[in-house]
Amino acid sequence: MTTPTARRAPTAPPVWPVPISEAARLAGVSARMVRHYESLGLLQGVARTESGYRQYTEADVHTLHFIRRARDLGFSMEEIATLVALWQDRSRTSAQVKRIAQTHIAQLTERIAQMQAMQRTLQTLVGCCHGDDRPDCPILDDLAGGGLGAMAGRHQR
Question: Is 53 exposed, middle or buried (0-12, 13-18, 19+ CB in 10 A)?
Answer without folding.
Answer: exposed
